[in-house]
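Supplementary Note 3. Input sequence used for the single-chain structure prediction.
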Amino acid sequence: MLMHDEIMEEPEVILKTYRSVWQSIPRIRHEMENSRLIFITGDGSSFHASLYLEHILMDNSLNARAFPATEYDHYFKNSDKNDLAIIFSQSGENVDVLNAARAWKEKGKRLISIVNNEGSSLEEISDISVFLRAGKEMAIPATKTYVSMLIFSYSLHLSLNGIEGDERISLISQRVKEIIKNERILEEISERINERIFILASGLDYVTALEGSLKLMETAGVISMPFYMGEVFHGPIEIIDENSTVFVIENDRIKGSIEKLLKYTKPLIIGDGIKSDILIQCKFKEAGPILNVVPFQLISYFLALRRGRDPDRPPRLKKVVTHG
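The predicted structure, written as discrete structure tokens, is reproduced below.
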């Protein structure tokens, strides 16, 4: 299956993308640091990558706002001449993304594209294009290209904080390799999943809750709902019961909330503790979403197979793939 093969490529994709984007980082930083506001957009998984970059930039005192490309007209109308737009895209040919890019350029403003595909229509519109070089992704659900988008943003985080990147990127690649090696555990978890799924997280990890839910819905055709951990006790807790599957992406902020959640259900914990059902060993907070998403990709793949669905070709979705 193509989706499975592309997930297996992620450890090497992490290294390739880092080598590809690193040389562009100083120029991107210059553009960002000379901007009043940075608009970041994309569709689907690319929108979730936009949210991750928003977190990275805001943590480094850069004013950023992420939104889906389909909603560009609600955001661009309030832009300023000193604003910058960054657009994520796998193919650089998505209609909604191109509409947003053209609308921005019609205002005579600077546009940076983060794209996997060289020679795309988006590249032609952009002032600067950064190429991820994750390799062609043929399965409709984005896996390795999503991870490569996060690596771009994480590389920017390293640069903004003066951190030597090579060692950290190598360690992240190794950690993803270890997660993949334990795919049998994730396959077993997929066999215990119910029709109604919740993914709970806090802070930066909420990006993974969104992307994990998207993967489960588009690939396996199940209902999956992402929530901030604290918000689940303000309404959604009423529909969580023993027939629900609840994933929690653990961090120090939500340990008390997990104890409260145990009154209603036994969640599957993704974290680095001895009680974690899915072990993710990462001491770098900002790299969490790069690692945490991999289990959801594999679980979605195995769950799709169990439900008799083709994980490579969800029946109602299309993917633009050119020569990437």
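Residues 93 and 121 are 6 Å apart (CA to CA). Residues 288-306 form the longest helix (19 residues).
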